Amino acid sequence: MRVLMLSLLTTRARAMTTTAQPFVSAIESIAKPTAQTAKAWLQASPSGAYTTARTHAGKVFEWSAHVQRTADSIRQMAPVGDAVDLVDPARLRRRLDGAAGAVVDAYRATHGGEELKLTFLVSWDDDGETTVAAHASPLPPIPSKPVRVETRGAPRANAAAKDSAWVSARAPLEKLQAEAHAPINELLLSDEGKILEGSQTNFYAIVDGKVVTAGEGILMGTVRRLALEVCERERIPVVLEAPDLKDVDRWEGCLISSTSRLLLPVDELYRPAEGAATTRGDLVRAFDTAPGSLAERLRELVAAEVAAHSEAVGGGGGEL
Q1: Quick one: pLDDT at residue 17?
Q2: DSSP for 29-65, written as a single string
Q3: What distance in Å separates the CA atoms of residue 45 and residue 164, rounded to the nearest whole number?
Q4: By CB neighbour count within 10 A (0-12 exposed, 13-18 middle, 19+ buried), where does 205 fall?
């Protein structure tokens, strides 16, 4: 069955590959160029547990946390008895290290040494045979101002597990983003007015000098973890509750976080316009994100910690 899974991954990749091949994918430690974006690669692959990481100066940001979260996702997603070996983070890490090294080496041999977005997928068949795959692409730039978000979308069924099926499930939300009159950087998932997270990010409001962010019903992102550590160190109070839109007039700011964005202050918050299914909604609040604001201070503090929270693949002191 494992041979069939490897064949399926290879066949799908070849079917979507063109003569222009700006990216690299790997199955286990065997890498090859591909024209597929990370999103297309995930959609063309068997469903499984995935994670997206970033490189920094030859290391991977929060690599141990990515391994642990992927092991946790496998534990939640795989049927009893399947993929049992890879719920052990130490065993999983050895496999992920191999795929990471292969895909990074192959990318840099062709494209050079820019910082990368690394996507990893662990899938399994009915017999519990597992496949570990990886994808490398350039790390996208931080979005330019103004950063706009809109509340439009319901919570995920199992937010704690990073299931690659979510990449296809969120496609309607991404279509709404593309159809907006002005760029919307992220769509926020809410439940009865309480914002849990974004379609690809964690979300935070600043209320009365406190950082308010959902403590459950969300995916615990690696940048979120760092942001909360920074708040604790700087003695910035944190409230683990979903920010409530009914209190938006009291918000002093809000932020989103993800692998590529790090911690990013939001300039404008929108909600759907009445009777408008696709176009950008109505402006709810504009926020101060200038130097000196708490949102900007938090962004700077998190960005300054990326190097210290990056580690070598393989657990040694060397670089990728």
Answers
A1: 38
A2: TEEEEES--HHHHHHHSPPEEEEEEEEETTEEETHHH
A3: 9
A4: buried
What are the structure tokens assigned to 158, written together? Answer: 């199992």
Q: How far apart are CA 276 and CA 280, in angstroms?
A: 8
Residue corresponding to tokens 């994808």: 135
Give CA–CA dist 77/90, Å, rounded: 19
The reported pLDDT for the residue numbered 183 is 80
CB 132 within 8 A of CB 29: no
**What pLDDT is stored for residue 75 in this prediction?**
85
Using alpha carbons only, give the angle 184, 189, 194 rounded to the nearest 5 degrees.
Answer: 120
pTM score of the predicted model: 0.82
Question: Which residues, at least 6 apart from 30, have a Cβ–Cβ distance to it below 8 Å?
Answer: 102
Q: Which pair of tokens denotes residue 107?
A: 């990318």
What is the identity of the amino acid at 3?
Answer: V
- Which tens digits make up the pLDDT trace of 10-19? 444 443 333 4
Residue 151, both tokens? 């509340």
pLDDT, tens only, 142-168: 999 999 999 986 665 555 555 555 455
Q: Which domains does the chain have, with CATH numbers?
A: 2-139 (3.30.470.10), 148-303 (3.20.10.10)
In the structure encoding, which two tokens stand for residue 14, read together? 């070849």
Listed residue (103, 108, 100) closest to 70, CA to CA: 100
